[in-house]
Amino acid sequence: MTNFRSPTARSHNRTPVTIEVMINGVLNFVDGRIVDLSEAGARIDGASMPARSRCEIHYAGEVTYAVVMWSEFDRMGVRFPYELTHGALYNALRSARRVKPADIPPAFLSQRTTVFGRRGLS
């Protein structure tokens, strides 16, 4: 029996991040923010370029090449022609994956411990 994967299945886990970058298109530089990153691609908010166009992502003095897969008014999804295996973006991805869910405080008041005041005096 052959193990069939759909063409849209992702082989890499996406990781939520907040990375300020500069995108170089054919004619202009645009500021953007990577909010979703994997070894194969990223979602960039605040920047938009035509689908199927090529661009450069500038971060920490390094350049990562990408192809725009989809685009909306203020965000786009890009695919890296070469998988991230080293460099500044890869290091940022590894750092984001090291953060454990236990390190993040609970979002809902019902999940927080009972304390007095902003400083947590009890």
UniProtKB/TrEMBL annotation:
Any matching Pfam family: PilZ
Domain PilZ per the UniProt entry, residue ranges: 10-85
Domain of life: Bacteria
Name of the featured protein: PilZ domain-containing protein
Native species: Sphingopyxis soli
